[in-house]
């Protein structure tokens, strides 16, 4: 692509889905199963931490921290791109969540039943601190589900109206199904 | 736009021309969105400029060059190695100078059934 002529350039549309969950629950695998681009170097991103929300650094404009941030792109149509953004897991990067979530179509919270507590914070965030539609997906590590979904819902204290499903983060067909379920769920909140 | 308004004020009829047709999103959409609503997934395009990048700071010139590929802000930030916040400001200025086009995001259509349907249908095509 090259410079465009402003008089003839047609507008493209982009949308975003957030992939959340704690450390080690499969966010990177999930995003990479769908993305048509290699993971991008996000080292530069965190240097903008100038909002003063991180008390560890009094002058946070000088913070230059590398944080792993999962990022994926899916071309749904040449002029319609869907981006996936994984939320940084570490608590001190929580101020990034609002920025990443702003304007998103919805969120997928990934859960690993072997370390279910890793995803409590993400579920709390989307239940109470955000108005984004979200679904919770239990990642079947090694293709197995260790607990049935009712048990998981109870353990997560998840409201009955939040969809809870299983997925295999390694399998594109499965991650597509998960995003599809989110789109369907979000359509329930949509204006006609 | 400024020129069109001054012509209006001076009583000279404004001709419908290409410039007038383009300006609403370059100026209103572009400039305001650039300053207040640049999301990580917002796409930008560099606009061909006769004056080139001579007057731009090196950072702004780098952002302008990188915008040739219609990247998202996130990709652009990574590509030029500048923090998101800096890239947002530079793009705001470039948009104000009509050097980049800021494309719309679905956030302006949030909860819009048609957008979600397009996403769902697009995802379903990925399955095959």
Q: Which descriptors apply to this entry?
A:
heterodimer; A: 192 residues; alpha/beta; 6-stranded mixed β-sheet; 5 helices; 25% helix; 20% strand; B: 128 residues; mainly alpha; two-stranded antiparallel sheet; 56% helix
Provide the gyration radius of chain B in Å. Answer: 17 Å
The percentage helix of chain B is 55-70%
Largest sheet of chain A: 6 strands, mixed
Strand order of the largest sheet of chain B: 1-2
Total strand segments of chain B: 2
End-to-end gap of chain B: 47 Å
Biggest interface, chains and residue tallies: A-B, 54 and 54 residues
Mean pLDDT level of chain A:
82
Q: What is the N-to-C succession of helices and strands of chain B?
A: HHEHHHEH
> Radius of gyration of chain A, Cα only, in angstroms?
18 Å
- Integer average pLDDT of chain B: 74
Work out the helix count of chain A. Answer: 5
Overall outline of chain B: elongated
- Approximately what portion of the residues of chain A adopt beta-strand conformation? 15-25%
SS-based structural class of chain A? alpha/beta
β-strand number of chain A: 6
Q: How big a fraction of the residues of chain B is strand?
A: under 5%
Count of alpha/pi helices of chain B: 6
Please describe the biggest sheet of chain B, giving its number of strands, its sense, and whether it closes into a barrel. Answer: 2 strands, antiparallel
Quaternary status of these chains?
A: heterodimer
Can you offer a commentary on this structure?
The complex is a heterodimer of chains A (192) and B (128). Chain A is of the alpha/beta class. Chain A is 25% helix and 20% strand. Chain A has a 6-stranded mixed beta sheet, sandwiched between helices. Residues 47-64 of chain A have low confidence and may be disordered. Chain B is mainly α. Chain B has helices at residues 2-9, 18-36, 58-66, 73-80, 84-96, 113-127; strands at residues 44-46, 100-102. Chain B has a two-stranded antiparallel ribbon. The longest helix of chain B is centred in the first third of the chain and has 19 residues, at 18-36. Chain B is elongated. Chains A and B meet through strand 1, strand 2, strand 3 and helix 5 of A and helix 2, helix 4, helix 5 and helix 6 of B.
């Amino acid at each position: 692509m090259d410079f465009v002529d402003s008089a003839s350039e047609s507008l493209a549309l982009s949308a975003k889905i957030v992939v959340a969950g704690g450390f080690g629950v499969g966010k990177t695998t999930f995003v990479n199963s769908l993305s048509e681009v290699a993971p991008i170097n996000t080292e530069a991103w965190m240097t903008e931490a100038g909002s003063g929300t991180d008390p560890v650094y009094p002058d946070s404009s000088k913070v230059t921290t590398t944080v792993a941030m999962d990022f994926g792109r899916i071309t749904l149509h040449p002029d319609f791109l869907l981006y996936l953004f994984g939320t940084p897991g570490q608590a001190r990067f929580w101020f990034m969540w609002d920025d990443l979530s702003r304007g998103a179509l919805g969120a997928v919270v990934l859960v690993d039943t072997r370390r279910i507590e890793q995803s409590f914070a993400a579920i709390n965030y989307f239940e109470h601190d955000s108005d984004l539609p979200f679904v919770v997906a239990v990642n079947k590590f090694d293709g197995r589900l260790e607990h049935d979904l009712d048990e998981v819902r109870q353990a997560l204290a998840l409201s009955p109206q939040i969809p809870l499903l299983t997925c295999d983060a390694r399998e594109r067909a499965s991650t597509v199904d998960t995003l599809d379920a989110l789109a369907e769920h979000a359509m329930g909140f949509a204006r006609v | 736009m400024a020129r069109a308004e001054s012509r209006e004020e001076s009583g000279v009829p404004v001709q419908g021309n290409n410039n007038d047709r383009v300006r609403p999103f370059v100026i209103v959409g572009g400039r305001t969105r650039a300053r207040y609503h640049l999301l990580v997934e917002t796409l930008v395009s560099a606009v061909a400029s006769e004056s080139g990048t001579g007057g731009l700071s090196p950072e702004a010139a780098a952002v302008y060059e990188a915008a040739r590929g219609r990247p998202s802000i996130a990709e652009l930030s990574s590509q030029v190695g500048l923090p998101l916040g800096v890239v947002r400001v530079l793009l705001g200025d470039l948009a104000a100078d009509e050097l980049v086009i800021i494309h719309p995001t679905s956030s302006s259509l949030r909860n819009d059934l048609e957008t979600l349907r397009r996403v769902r249908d697009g995802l379903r095509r990925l399955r095959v």
